[in-house]
Amino acid sequence: MADSIKTEGKAIEKGEYIIGIAIILAALLVSGTVFMGMNSVTDAIGKVKLTVTAAPSGGSGTTPTPTPTPTPTVPTVQQLSGLDYSTAPFRGSASADLVMAEYSDFQCPYCGNAEPTMVQLQAAYPNMKFIYRQFPLSFHPYAQKAAEASLCANAQGKFWELHDKMYANQNSLAVSDIKGYAAAISGMNATAFNTCLDSGTMAAEVSKEEQEGVGIGIQGTPSFLIYSKSVKSDALEAKLQALATKLQTGVVQVNGAGYGIVVVGALPYANFQEVMSAFN
Q: Which phi and psi (to 5°) does residue 145 adopt?
């Protein structure tokens, strides 16, 4: 007779009992594995959540460097000191507050192109003092002696007469040509002129004026320094700064007094007129 176990009034065969136990154990093992797996998944998710939560904004893991606020550019005013035009040849009013100094080269074709504009400006602004300064360029073979010749003529009060003749004949500026122009000027002492030109007496003055231009910032011809001898108001500076930006140049203050501007190139008359209007 097979062994049997009684439970709650029901007899269970021994084999059936063992099978039941096995099923229960298997269920427990499966549930434990699922539980442990769920714990592992939960731990992993928790770790992922922690990692994501700990990352800073941007996801780089490091604190981003803040972009600095750009500092506004403050327009500058170049200080020009020691400019002395008291002995320079000029046209217009000697006492004028508005001054225009042209740094030029008698052989420069662009300077020749600018001459009609300069004549037009002088007619339109008769109260302006128009000054000529020497700036002969080294690659123009006749420019140096032409500059010296103009100063030899100036010594006799004939600067503008020779100035006009040389610009009218830019393709013929050999020394012999210039002597011929000088001899044709009424009241010119040709002998004294020729001696002055041949001796190189004015070479030092030409160099001085050229270095003066370099100090202003001039690098080519024609270039113009236009300024007021006395006005240094904020309103004038604002107008000149706007023009300097447009013309890609700079604002200056001459001898600690009035404001001005450097204009480079043989610009159209309208550009010079716009500059002049800033001083009105």
A: -70, -30
What's the CA gap between 230 and 248, in Å, rounded?
24
pLDDT at 156: 98
Q: Smallest Cα–Cα separation from 252: which of 243, 262, 242?
A: 262
Which two tokens mark 265?
């190139």
Q: Which CATH superfamily is domain 77-278 in?
A: Glutaredoxin (3.40.30.10)
- Provide mean pLDDT across the span 223-250: 97
DSSP for 118-170, please give it: HHHHHHH-TTSEEEEEE---TT-TTHHHHHHHHHHHHTTT-HHHHHHHHHHTT
Would the CA dihedral through 48, 54, 60, 61 be positive or negative?
Answer: negative
